[in-house]
Amino acid sequence: MKEHVLVIMPHPDDETFAVGGTIALYAQRGVPVTYVCGTRGEMGRRMGRPPFATRESLPGLREKELREACRILGITDLRFLGLWDKTVEFEDPEALAARLKAIIEEIRPSLIITYHPDYSVHPDHMALGRATVRAVAQLPPDRRPPVHTRAFGKASAVLGEPDLVVDVRPVWETKLAAIRAHRSQSALVLADDDPEAQERLRRDRTQEAYYVWKFKD
């Protein structure tokens, strides 16, 4: 099977903060990466530091930032589902899974990366993770690509140690540039005037851990 990575997450910047190093490593090898982004981050709380966006301008701004981050990471296929930020959990799960299944059958990815359906903190993260897993489960077992999920919070206490940890230090500067591209969301995290915060960011973001989703049949 020809390699093709499909990333399914709900927000502009999820692809960078959560899995940007993994994406950059695949892109560096020439593997195509498609990002299916659920929303345009319309309800994001951060407006820049100091604020330079408004509630009205934020969706367009975040889409522009995402396109630049995709260019930096090497994502060449960006698609939006057109869902509304912070409401993904209220979408019809069967309808959403059907939309994702159609994309999966079109692309035929060798790997899908998404959020863990139960342990990824944000309701949007978990809802789109659940829809992704549901979509893949509807495929015949011999046609299901592996699904790698990102989990946070108390996940390790429940799930145990991750199945896979990706060291992204070789592409850290690329990931950092993509973080900077999401300027409206990353200013507080970057803390350019605080060397200790910069080191903490590097330390916290240079490993990307995954749990491999195990289907029951």
TrEMBL record:
InterPro entries cross-referenced by the UniProt entry: BshB2, GlcNAc_PI_deacetylase-related, LmbE-like_dom_sf
Cross-referenced Pfam families: PIG-L (PF02585)
Gene3D superfamilies to which the protein is assigned, alphabetical: LmbE-like (3.40.50.10320)
GO molecular function, one term: hydrolase activity, acting on carbon-nitrogen (but not peptide) bonds, in linear amides
PANTHER family membership: N-ACETYL-ALPHA-D-GLUCOSAMINYL L-MALATE DEACETYLASE 2-RELATED (PTHR12993:SF27), N-ACETYLGLUCOSAMINYL-PHOSPHATIDYLINOSITOL DE-N-ACETYLASE-RELATED (PTHR12993)
NCBIfam families: thiol_BshB2 (TIGR04000)
Protein name according to UniProt: Bacillithiol biosynthesis deacetylase BshB2
Originating species: Symbiobacterium thermophilum (strain DSM 24528 / JCM 14929 / IAM 14863 / T)
Top-level taxonomy: Bacteria, Bacillati, Bacillota, Clostridia, Eubacteriales
